[in-house]
């Protein structure tokens, strides 16, 4: 791994919050192991290995039932590690792939059989090289036939430019990590309200209320991010997902404790009804129906 890379927490705490039966960690990754699933030669970072066995052990430790495993940029469009994890998990996991524009229909069908239900479009420039939007639109048209959705990852300063493109995607869109708002500006700032308005005006757009550890300015206290997460949960209770982001690639401020991240959930979804929607009903509808 890179010399400055922070490995995931070796012994996360047991959360005080008890997740409802059937709860889904809807954003996590597997990395390698590199000797079996090599990292992409043009990757922007080299992580520590984070195996399927370690992910599933964490799932059980945190009191969750299922995972949605998202292909990370360090593996490029080689989804072998993701597909291996999905086949091991069976019905307890679903996947989001990153695909090459020249992928065959047969390959897409095999991915669907393994449990893939979406593709990820990454617009974070420090993580990936830019891709022409026409390429993404062509992929979107192909995966729509399978009933898949699109996961998009971008940072708040890029949202205004992306809105016309997002409106061209004629399927369900899930935005990673609330579009990464700058939490020093406050929830009423026009930047975050632009994102809120996007969801209000486009009922096909969902979001993950995840990664307070990436957004906070006061780690490991995530209270500065809670108002953003809670606003989205309360405004769009049927279009929000939650995930750990384990194994937390490219963290620089601290190594997050996954048990502590789970204990943020009742602060952002304070009622049993909101928790049920966030952790069970919404991900089940999107990934298992």
TrEMBL record:
InterPro entries, alphabetized: Amidohydro-rel (IPR006680), Aro_Compnd_Degr_Hydrolases (IPR052358), GLI/LigI (IPR047874), Metal_Hydrolase (IPR032466)
Domain (Amidohydrolase-related): residue spans on this chain: 24-287
Source taxon at top rank: Bacteria
Q: Which GO terms describe its molecular function?
A: hydrolase activity
| One Pfam family it belongs to | Amidohydro_2
Keywords noted in UniProt:
Hydrolase
- The molecule here is called 2-pyrone-4,6-dicarboxylate hydrolase
Organism, per UniProt?
Answer: Neptunomonas antarctica
